[in-house]
Each structure stands twice: as structure tokens, then as C-alpha cells.
Known about the structure:
Elements: E1 4-8, E2 11-17, H1 22-31, H2 39-45, E3 51-57, E4 60-69, E5 74-82, H3 91-106, E6 112-115, H4 121-126
Parallel strand pairs: 5-6
Antiparallel strand pairs: 1-2, 2-3, 3-4, 4-5
Amino acid sequence: MSDEAICTANGSYELRPGVPAIETYRRLRGATGLGAKSVEGAAIGLPNTWFGVLVEHGGETVGMGRIIGDGGCHFQIVDMCVLPEHQGRGLGKRIMAALTAELERRAPDGSYVSLIADGEARRLYAQYGFAETAPVSVGMARLFRKP
């Protein structure tokens, strides 16, 4: 994927492959309701990104999405977010299109790609071929906390 200019009625955006810096990552997650991860967790996790996309506007990163996984059998789309003041301009669709295109290009046949859809985001993800798994299977999660 090469850098892609996105022009909207409200300004110009650039979509490019990449992984945010730790503080940018934490800022985006916090500002979009995903919850800021610890500096330690981000420092360990971000370099393990299989593929990532950033959206920039006026020199600031305003959106992101990442794919993590083992690179062969299992992948997960995570950290999909766009700052609230930049939402409604199709940026989430551009991020998903770039992530999906990279999976189609590089992921082996039969790879399992999952994600967690919060609220109405399921409508966006459905546009890219993702389907709810319930009742056959349901997502489960546990947030680990140190005592």
C-alpha cells in the first residue's frame, strides 16, 4: 500500500501504512473510548503489529487500525479508531479497506480473521465481509490486572 490522499469537504487527509508512536497510540485510544493502554504494554505490543494504517491530518495522527496475529493461521483487527472530531468523513472505511486489502494480499488461504465490533461498528465491518458468529460461537474476553 502506498500513501493515499483522502480529500473530504472538511480537509485533506493522508492514509499511510505504519504503526503509531507509543504516546500517539495511547492518546488515540483514550480519546476514542478504547481506553489507553499502559506505556509498558504499548512498548511490547506495537512492534508486533503484522500491518498497521495511520490517518494523518495537518501533521497529526487522527486515526489508526492494526492487524495482529501469528502471520499464518490467525489474525485480529484491533485499535480501529478515528478521533471524534474527524469521524463521519469515511476515514474508518478507508482504514478497513486498507487492512482488508493487505490481508487479501498476504494472508494465507484459510486464515481466520476476527475482530470485536463495538456498537454500530458492526455495520462497517459487515461491508468488508465480517459476519457475527453467534450463536455458533461468542466472543469472550478477560482484562488482566496486576494485584
